[in-house]
Amino acid sequence: MTAPPGPRPDPVDALMDAWHTELPDVLRPTTELSKRIAQLARALDQATRGVLPELGLTVAEFDILVALRRAGEPYRMKPNELARALLLSSGGISNVVNHLADRGLVRREPSPDDGRSTMIRLTPDGVRTAERAVRANADAHEAVFAEASPTSVDAATRALREVDIRHSPARPIRTGRNPSRT
User: Fold this and answer.
1) Distance CA 70, CA 68 (A)
2) 165: helix, strand or coil
3) φ, ψ for residue 109 (rounded to 5)?
4) What is the pLDDT of residues 58-80, one digit of tens each?
């Protein structure tokens, strides 16, 4: 009886083999994992970028629409909250929001808490577009994992969560309030 075939060799295997031959002391227990995570991140990014043109969206527009939709009703955030959530500059947010507003997907409105500031809010068409985009992105990501078993995906998820928990110190979530005043 023959052993079941293992995974097919891939570019990461070739890279690891080359380093084993050329400079084996640079390899660490995390080297292959790091390369595989980077390869997976590229595949997921390509999958996302592949569906956005069908929706007429750029990556930045997608990110803003999804962040607003994820915020829950009434689907609005302050520009600085968006910038922090998406790790973008306020100028970059402003340019993208202007484009989305021109397309009728978002609108600026006064903040209910502070008349000096504005909120960015999804329009009904923006909500529909965000939901279509999230679904298309989820489908594209699912396709990346199509050959992996649900058990493997679950195991990888658990393993990566463990790595994250062990190496990312817990940080308090910022609420924008001064904790000494609450």
Assistant:
1) 5
2) helix
3) -145, 160
4) 999 999 999 999 999 999 999 98
